[in-house]
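From the shared-data thread, chain only:
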Amino acid sequence: MSAHFLNVIWVALMVATILTWFIGKSVTMDVSLVVAVLLISAVKGWLIIYDFMALRRVKVLWRALVLGWLLLTLAVILLAYWLGLK
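Structure, as tokens:
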């Protein structure tokens, strides 16, 4: 993997982090904004897992385990938020 590609990924992660920060600082936080933040976080996690943890070229089992853990964590966060609205 080239250093240029990793730098592009790093810049994308920084932009996504700033975007989620701005969304979090918004005055009205509704369900759609929470889902947007979680989707951005999922993309960030996917980029980190595939490129910085170097799981892009490993067996499918390892990628499935780590990505499954990420998706499960985000689903639990969304569920906790949804239950907190009631």
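Residues 3-85 form one domain.
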